[in-house]
Amino acid sequence: QVQLVESGGGLVQAGGSLRLSCAASGRIFSSYTMGWFRQAPGKEREFVAAISWNSGSTYYGDSVKGRFTISRDNAKNTVYLQMNSLKPEDTAVYYCAANRRSAYTGVVATDGGRYDYWGQGTQVTVSS
User: How far apart are CA 32 and CA 18, in angstroms?
Assistant: First the structure.
């Protein structure tokens, strides 16, 4: 079992930056693909970014490419999402997720249904 806890959300003005963190329990975190998703009120969950177990592969949703960067520190059991040039449309609850079935592969899934563990989410609000 893996438990995920997100932090770093908050209120920021458009054009600003935030860094989200996701701390994972369990020593097997380092083998999983990790992803970030978001969900705004009244909208479907949206893929944001994902990173393979060894950071060899990353993938981003079209709406965040060039602005967001995903990274991980397996020694700290933590995955990060650096968010720059934030826009009001980035306002959402951001969720961290772990894909157990991708362990030790370079597979980076964008479908939330392929992720096995989820955090409770952290709110990001971008004011105009």
Answer: 24
